């Protein structure tokens, strides 16, 4: 059985991009926990039902191609909007939501050979992970990346608005009472501000090989 790798960090740090590549190079399964919270947010937006009712019967699946399925329907592209990003942060504040998704995430990790990214993987979800990475970058750089990503997808975007949104997300994630975003004591810090994707991947692979 291969290692269990936890990657945490703030919005726009490149966790998903880097984790997908590392998973492919190692032959591991990539688990995007942020996508799971986005799926909860999408269902809340679609139904307007009480959050507790939504979570109780929700079905979220991630396949080996990083596609996301909500109640059997693929929503991979639909969950990647600023509105859903905000909702994901909102619903993540609730203990019963985190409890439900943490249970699902731990089951996914039991098979080993996985790399899981999110906000509280190394601190809460998988405290016994073999390798823990805390991936970050400056606010300016993270906003620039998200702005370029939205433009590439043909979505209307304003840089200052994107920067404000990410700063708000940082505040929500680090100040929430339940499982706030923080670097685990035994996590290795990787600052990607001035690094290419390839350089970040190389750093993480090097860290994995020595742990």
Sum this structure up briefly.
By secondary structure, the protein is of the alpha/beta class. It has nine helices and eight strands.
Secondary structure: elements and pairs:
Elements: E1 4-8, H1 15-26, E2 29-32, H2 33-47, H3 51-57, E3 60-62, E4 68-70, E5 73-74, H4 82-91, H5 95-109, E6 114-118, H6 121-125, E7 131-136, H7 139-152, H8 159-175, E8 188-191, H9 197-210
Parallel strand pairs: 1-6, 1-7, 2-6, 7-8
Antiparallel strand pairs: 3-4, 4-5
Tally of separate helices? 9
Q: What structural category do the secondary elements indicate?
A: alpha/beta
Low-confidence stretches: none
Query: In which order are the strands of the major sheet placed?
Result: 2-6-1-7-8
The total beta strand count reads: 8
Calculate Rg over CA atoms: 16 Å
Distance between the termini: 15 Å
The average pLDDT score comes to 92
| Helix-strand string | EHEHHEEEHHEHEHHEH
Overview of the molecule:
By secondary structure, this protein is an alpha/beta fold. 52% of the residues lie in helices and 15% in strands. The chain has helices spanning 15-26, 33-47, 51-57, 82-91, 95-109, 121-125, 139-152, 159-175, 197-210; strands at 4-8, 29-32, 60-62, 68-70, 73-74, 114-118, 131-136, 188-191. Strands 2-6-1-7-8 form a 5-stranded parallel β-sheet, sandwiched between helices. Strands 3-4-5 form a 3-stranded antiparallel β-sheet, with helices on one face. Helix 1 packs across helix 9 and helix 7 crosses helix 8. The longest helix has 17 residues, at 159-175. The radius of gyration is 16 Å and the shape is globular. It starts with a strand and ends with a helix. The relative contact order is 0.22. The mean pLDDT is 92.
């Amino acid at each position: 059985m291969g290692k269990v790798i936890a990657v945490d960090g703030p919005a726009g740090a490149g966790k998903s991009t880097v984790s997908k590549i590392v998973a492919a190079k190692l032959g591991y399964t990539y688990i995007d926990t942020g996508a799971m919270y986005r799926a909860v947010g999408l269902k809340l937006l679609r139904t307007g039902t009480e959050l507790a009712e939504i979570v109780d019967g929700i079905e979220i699946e991630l396949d080996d191609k990083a596609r996301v399925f909500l109640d059997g329907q693929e929503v991979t592209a639909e969950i990647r909007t600023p509105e859903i990003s905000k909702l994901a942060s909102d619903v993540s504040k609730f203990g019963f939501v985190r409890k439900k998704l943490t249970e699902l995430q731990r089951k996914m990790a039991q098979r080993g050979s996985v790399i899981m990214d999110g906000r509280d993987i190394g601190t809460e979800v998988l405290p016994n992970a073999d390798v823990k990475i805390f991936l970050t970058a400056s606010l300016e750089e993270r906003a620039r990346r998200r702005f370029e990503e939205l433009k590439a997808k043909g979505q209307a975007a304003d840089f200052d608005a994107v920067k404000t949104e990410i700063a708000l997300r940082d505040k929500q994630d680090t100040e929430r009472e339940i499982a706030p975003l923080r670097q685990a004591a035994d996590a290795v810090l990787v600052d990607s501000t001035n690094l290419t994707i390839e350089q970040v991947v190389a750093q993480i692979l090097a860290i994995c090989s020595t742990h």
